[in-house]
Amino acid sequence: MSDKILAFGCDHAGLTLKLELMEAARSLGFSVIDCGTTSEESVDYPDFANKVVEVLKSQQASLGVLMCGTGIGMSMVANRHPKIRAAVCHTELEARLAREHNNANILCLGGRILGADQAKSCLEAFLSAHFSGGRHTQRVEKIG
Predict the structure, then answer these.
(1) Residues with Cβ < 8 Å from 138, sequence gap 6 or more?
(2) Distance of CA 24 to the CA centre of its chain
(3) 0.85 exceeded by pTM
(4) Residue 136 is a catalytic residue
(5) Quick check: 81 and 64 in contact, CB under 8 A?
(6) Where are the alpha helices (DSSP H) in 83-134?
């Protein structure tokens, strides 16, 4: 699995943000897998959250990024899966700490909550951070 491949998924409310963030990821040297959706037609967010999870489980990508209206629905679906740790983030600090302390492997963002610039800052913080290990390892292991 390449550490430079990201899986992106969204529903209709996250489409515009997804397109912008995929371009931002490419500019940072990442390859992307687009798990949909590809239009603004109303769709069910669980379908796309599950697609991103499957890409991570199959080790085609190392990290995922999910977007819906708030990011909450996507995180609820993703977190039902073993070994998936999806974090809804609104700030760079949350995104960085989600990786460093919680070993998050999916970043969830709200297309109706964050502007593109703030979302890009969250993405950059998430991608540049790494799990700290140490005292956090025992805690993350308890998640499953």
Answers:
(1) none
(2) 14
(3) yes
(4) no
(5) no
(6) 92-102, 116-128
Is 35 catalytic? The answer is: no
Q: Tokens standing for 94?
A: 């949350």
> 9: which strand partners?
66
Structural domains in the chain (count): 1
- Domain limits at 24? 5-143
CATH of the domain at 47: 3.40.1400.10
Across the range 33-51, mean pLDDT stands at 98
Locus of tokens 């996507």: 74
Marked catalytic residue, from 81, 90, 101, 136 = 101
Strands, sheet with 31-34, edge to edge from the N-terminal-most edge strand: 31-34, 5-10, 63-68, 106-110, 86-88
Single-letter amino acid code for the residue at 10: C
